[in-house]
Amino acid sequence: MLARLDQPIAAIATAPGRGAVGIVRVSAKSVQAVIEAVCGRALKPREATYLPFRSADGSFIDQGIAIHFPAPNSYTGEDVLELQAHGGPVVLQLLLARCLEAGAGMTLRVAEPGEFTQRAFLNGKLDLAQAEAIADLIDASTEAAARSATRSLAGEFSREIHVLRDALINLRMLVEATLDFPEEEIDFLQKADADGQLQRLQLKLGEVLERARQGALLREGLHVVIAGQPNAGKSSLLNALAGAELAIVTPIPGTTRDVVRQTIQIEGVPLHVVDTAGLREGADQVEQIGIERAWGQIEKADAVLFLHDLTRADAPDYRAADDAIRAKLPEDVPVVDVWNKLDAQPLVIPAQAGTQGSLSLSAKTGAGLDTLRKQLLAIAGYHAAPEGVFIARERHLHALRRVDAHLMEAAALLAQQAQALDLLAEELRLAQNALNEITGEFNADDLLGVIFSRFCIGK
Ligand SMILES: Nc1nc2c(c(=O)[nH]1)N(C=O)[C@@H](CNc1ccc(C(=O)N[C@@H](CCC(=O)O)C(=O)O)cc1)CN2
Ligand SMILES: Nc1nc2c(ncn2[C@@H]2O[C@H](COP(=O)(O)OP(=O)(O)OP(=O)(O)O)[C@@H](O)[C@H]2O)c(=O)[nH]1
């Protein structure tokens, strides 16, 4: 692996397919050999030069722009050459092949996915959270997700983590110093307000965790399943939410036989909506498979919109069939009772106990859709002002929750009048490790450096 990290790499940096401009990038200890062979002249550092890209036989592959980013001032921190050509798949493949040929002497190879960014991380250009934010920015499905990824990329998330880490290091210094001078122990910790420090740290961690949770929501989105009896208007609701005719709508019960998916957004939160086959007994074989798939989707959902037909709300057999469905809904998935066709039957239906609420709307006219959208955001727990959110991943949330658990342990130990100072120290150490996982900084010397620089050990 390490040897591979030393190898020069090249790749087409732009999306596959046709485009106005396409870029081939080379990163190596030195890209001079490739510059000489392909550009046929020296390049001024970090300056765009318009020139022909040359084949080995001297013919031109394309006329384009070349930029040399001398190490270490480049995206990867290595020597980087960028060739900006016309964006055709064939011309870019030819240019890449030409670079590989020109760099054969230094074993230039095609980069693996993420390898340029991995080098940027290893060369200290970015930390791990920032590197992940680059991928999240590229994958963002809404503007809010993209903006919060940019904030993480700019280091906002990492800065919050560093603030937590610095406070944690201070506390660890206190505890570890107390360990070294046991006769002063309790006094020392009390005087330095170790309790207060820990409490403030926990409070701050709670805030960061909440912001990260909002960011993770922007990244992952919410999986919502529309379920209910045939003809309740499930496909109509999907279409109304999406603002497009995606699913087939007919008055014939059992129209939707397979799941239909669509990602829409509410205030920037991606919503993965699934329309399912109507749930009923005595369906034919194909419909039955659709119904089984519907239940499979319901079990995996973050929320279920249980759709009912308001015009049939008074029919005992209709209510009985709804009750049968309700009895089978998983307990741990939030359910919203949605009474549809409000335009045809203007009735207000009492809230169903034990659900995330009940509302009525018309998929046909759109009345009540806004209330539903707000309800979905509330279930997701999304309430952030988008400018305060930074993108985060499940991995980050997991690490932050582990930090939280270690700090709770530490608080419990501290409350026991420091009878187990070494255990307390260990909990704080584990908390810091979990924090460091987020930014990818695992270096134990960090802590030692700070301790030694601030404490006079000989004293
Ligand atoms: N043409 C082009 N556009 C691009 C990229 C690229 O590689 N090429 N990027 C890549 O994905 C992104 C920009 N990322 C970059 C990050 C750092 C440096 C760079 O030269 N850094 C130096 C100098 C910094 C400075 O002058 O402030 C350094 O870090 O020392 C360049 C691009 C998006 N746009
Ligand atoms: N008046 C009125 N009719 C509606 C409304 N929503 C849906 N419908 C009608 O109800 C019928 C069934 O709608 P669909 O959206 O196909 O219902 P579904 O629940 O997907 O049906 P299945 O595919 O059978 O499960 C169609 O004739 C729709 O036009 C509404 O808000 N008001």
TrEMBL record:
Residues 221-381 form the TrmE-type G domain. Mg(2+) binds at residues 235, 256. It is found in: Cytoplasm. Its cofactor is K(+). Transmembrane segments: none annotated. Keywords: Coiled coil, Cytoplasm, GTP-binding, Hydrolase, Magnesium, Metal-binding, Nucleotide-binding, Potassium, tRNA processing. InterPro entries: G_TrmE, GTP-bd, GTP-bd_TrmE_N, GTPase_MnmE, MnmE_dom2, MnmE_helical, P-loop_NTPase, Small_GTP-bd. Residues 414-441 form a coiled coil. GO terms for biological process: tRNA methylation; tRNA wobble uridine modification. Homodimer. Heterotetramer of two MnmE and two MnmG subunits. Exhibits a very high intrinsic GTPase hydrolysis rate. Involved in the addition of a carboxymethylaminomethyl (cmnm) group at the wobble position (U34) of certain tRNAs, forming tRNA-cmnm(5)s(2)U34. This is tRNA modification GTPase MnmE. The lineage of its organism: Bacteria, Pseudomonadati, Pseudomonadota, Betaproteobacteria, Burkholderiales. The gene is mnmE.
